[in-house]
Amino acid sequence: MKICAIGDIHGKLNKLKKIHLTDIDLILLAGDLGSANLARKMAFENIKRENLGLPEVEYTPAQEKRAFMESYNSTIKIIKYLQRFAPVFTIFGNVESSNQETKEKSKEINLSLPYLYNKLNSLQNVRVINNRLANFKNVKIGGLKYFIDTSWIREFKPINYEEKLSEAKKETDKAKKILRWFGNVDILICHQPPYGILDKVKAKFAPKHWQGKHAGSKVILEYIKSKSPKYVFCGHIHESQGMKKIGKTEIHNLCVGKYKIIEYVK
């Protein structure tokens, strides 16, 4: 069985068209499917202002919706292309919004926004496996959606540290419970890499105080060491593409639209 795992696509359809998918049995996606150029620009502008002691820019509802729809529309375009070749299993990265997040954003800006999760799951050959187990031809796959690990908060020390740490503890505890429930899997598809493995920030667009720090998850690292899945596919840190092993586990950071095709033998 041939499985193709693809990293953060970010709306780059031209990169996908270079992948030979006609004889692939299953496609796995590590999140960040759509373009997030507007959202990233807005977020990093305010990070820069915070560190200079300046007030955040308050974007208009129309600007907020434009950034959301850029990601939404480009995600649908990517998925509709891929579903023509094989079943698609995907998780959400930090670009995609859950139904709850979309509902909250709609209320905040007082504008209606479409639910990406519902739309993707309505498409033929597509399944969102956020924090879920999937079985494909007897291959057990765990899908862990993006979360903020307390290790990230401690490493990057954002403004409002105590508040952010408290929020991250809740997300981290939830991720731990999900991974315990997964137990042993053949493949783990997650967004961020394990801590210290293919996770060092070196991107030019990232803030200077982020450079050289590890953005991976200690929770994911502990899971790999404990359960030894055969493969882990991730993305998130675009400049740290590559493969490393922890014991018997192959960890692939698939970067931006890079991919790995494996011949899986159960």
Summary of the model, kept short:
The protein is of the alpha/beta class. Helix content is 36%, strand content 18%. The protein is globular and about 55 Å long.
For the record, the count of structural domains works out to 1
Uncertain regions spanning at least 5 consecutive residues: none
* Name given to the CATH architecture: 4-Layer Sandwich
Radius of gyration equals 18 Å
Could you tell me the strand content as a percent range?
Answer: 15-25%
Mean pLDDT: 94
Number of helices: 8
What do we call the CATH homologous superfamily? Metallo-dependent phosphatases
- Give the tally of β-strands: 11
CATH structural class: Alpha Beta
Write out key terms for the chains shown.
about 270 residues; alpha/beta; Purple Acid Phosphatase, chain A, domain 2; six-stranded mixed sheet; five-stranded mixed sheet; 8 helices; 11 strands; about 35% helix; globular
Write the layout of secondary structure elements.
Blueprint: E1 2-6, H1 13-16, E2 26-29, H2 37-51, H3 61-82, E3 88-90, H4 99-109, H5 116-121, E4 126-128, E5 132-136, E6 139-144, H6 150-156, H7 161-182, E7 187-190, H8 218-227, E8 231-234, E9 242-246, E10 249-253, E11 259-263
Parallel strand pairs: 1-2, 2-3, 3-4, 6-7, 7-8, 8-10
Antiparallel strand pairs: 1-11, 5-6, 9-10
